[in-house]
Design a protein that fits this description.
The protein is mostly helical. The chain contains 3 helices and no strands. The protein has helices at residues 2-28, 37-63, 65-68.
Length: 71
């Protein structure tokens, strides 16, 4: 149990330091990470399209699953 507590403490400390460094970097460069609305729209459309295609394939496979069992 001692080792788990030590590892947990070390992990939390490292994550805290990394978060503080990231926040300091963001303060120095406030334009970092800006993303255009066009990029967001393209990503949403791509993910939605992929989910629709996967859903359609799943429905077709389930519909014809009994027919395909004899092949």
């Amino acid at each position: 149990m001692k080792h788990l507590a030590a590892h947990s403490y070390r992990a939390v400390r490292l994550l805290t330091e990394r978060l503080e460094e990231s926040l300091a970097e963001a303060g120095r460069r406030p334009d970092r990470g800006d993303i255009s609305i066009t990029t967001v729209i393209i990503w949403v459309a791509a993910v939605t399209g992929a989910l629709l295609i996967a859903g359609t394939i799943a429905v077709v496979i389930n519909k014809y699953n009994t027919s395909l069992n004899g092949i």
